[in-house]
Amino acid sequence: MNARPDPPFIGHTLAWVSSQITPQIKSELDTTSQILNSFVTKSAVIPQDTLDEIKNLAARIVELAKKDDGLDDATRAAFIRYAHRIAETADLYKVTGPQPLLDELDRFSYESRRMTTPPGPGLWEATKKLTTAIVLAVELLMVPVNTDNALEYYGEMFSQYELTEAPGEPELPEIVIDMEDDHEPEALSA
């Protein structure tokens, strides 16, 4: 039976473990922490009010599509189906993120080109508002954060790390050699 060795700090007090962390180890841990933190990306969050607005507009589209007598059955079904999908995607935003909202909007936009009957003015206005709300929420809220992440990523990619030493007294050599004379080296006076 293979016995696993105890970790090196088992059985020691916290004070003893703390005494084992030298300034050099602490400096290395700080440097490692800074390097790891540089790879953390920021994320933007669509406010809950905006998500609620998207869901309310989607519900309004469903309501208006059901009442619009000028729509054929396929067009009415498409408005209802995509409005439901967009509302569900807004509900799942915290799990899936913003991209599915754009994907559903793209699918709806593609489907709307194939619709044979135009929607009434109320339904069309609600559809435009929903499109605007999604585009503003996803594209405008996400662009600054994505741009900031990209700038940091590429900035880190091309940056050069250099060793920085803390300022202190310069170390002077104890002996100065005068190469022009044939004298013995002289000791510096401090």
What report would you give on this structure?
This protein is mainly α and 190 residues long. The protein is built from seven helices and two strands, in the order αααααααββ. The longest helix is centred in the last third of the chain and has 38 residues, at 121-158.
Largest sheet: 2 strands, antiparallel
Question: What spatial order of strands do you see in the largest sheet?
Answer: 1-2
CA radius of gyration: 33 Å
Number of alpha- plus pi-helical segments: 7
Per the principal axes of the C-alpha atoms, what is the gross shape?
Answer: elongated
Helix/strand/pairing category: mainly alpha
Mean pLDDT equals 76
Please give the structural blueprint.
Blueprint: H1 14-19, H2 23-37, H3 48-67, H4 73-91, H5 93-96, H6 99-113, H7 121-158, E1 175-176, E2 186-187
Helix pairs in contact: 3-4, 3-7, 4-6, 6-7
Could you provide a short overview of the structure?
Helix content is 62%, strand content 2%. It has helices at 14-19, 23-37, 48-67, 73-91, 93-96, 99-113, 121-158, and strands spanning 175-176, 186-187.
Task: From the structure above, extract its key features.
single chain, mainly alpha, two-stranded antiparallel ribbon
